[in-house]
Amino acid sequence: MHTVILTIGKPKLAYARAGVEEYLSRMSPWGGVKWEQLKAGTREQESAALLARSEGLFRVVLDERGEIVASRALAKRISEWELRSVKGVAFLIGGADGHTEELRKRADWVWSLTALTLQHELALVVLCEQLYRARSILAGLPYHRD
Question: What is the DSSP string of the chain?
Answer without folding.
Answer: -EEEEEEES---SHHHHHHHHHHHHHTGGGT--EEEEEPP--HHHHHHHHHHHTTTSEEEEEEEEEE---HHHHHHHHHHHHHTT--EEEEEE-BTTB--HHHHHT-SEEE-S-SS---HHHHHHHHHHHHHHHHHHHTT-TT---
